Amino acid sequence: SQKIEQNSEALNIQEGKTATLTCNYTNYSPAYLQWYRQDPGRGPVFLLLIRENEKEKRKERLKVTFDTTLKQSLFHITASQPADSATYLCAPYDSTLTFGKGTMLLVSP
Amino acid sequence: NAGVTQTPKFRVLKTGQSMTLLCAQDMNHEYMYWYRQDPGMGLRLIHYSVGEGTTAKGEVPDGYNVSRLKKQNFLLGLESAAPSQTSVYFCASTNGQGGTEAFFGQGTRLTVV
User: What is the model's pLDDT at position A96?
Assistant: First the structure.
């Protein structure tokens, strides 16, 4: 069956460091992979999309990589700030939009 | 633009009661989705629609029905609510398949007692 795995444990980092979140998937052949941010009590908000023929995508302090051989995407936030604290969801798109359970990021001052 | 609007925001139901959750989008999007989110379970897809008049089952469709009579609206129905359906429900819409971002509503918190 299809599975999306994200670290279930919260990631705690210090302000200014780079946060790296991992998304692994099995039994998917996604043409796209999306990353979303979700704050408590709110709906997810789109951050970045990467296509299967792209290795890397950047947007300001955000960077996403996509390795279709490893079936893995990495999401990086450089120069992290306390305001980056949230849960981050990955969504490999195969035939529908399905999400991993998300990883909570906590950035301390 | 309002984007994606869910109605109601909160609701308490008794076991066996029925209700309909409304999702409305004003972006002329083709695709619409209903998810439920439970602690530790992430977002799980209930039903989705790829256009007006179409619906399809997602990962957890049992106990729910949907309709997409108008392009801008996607309704989620619970015919006979059960405590296991206590959850936060999110609606989302996209302009196409996975190559475009999804816009989410603010969620509906449903409690079935």
Answer: 87
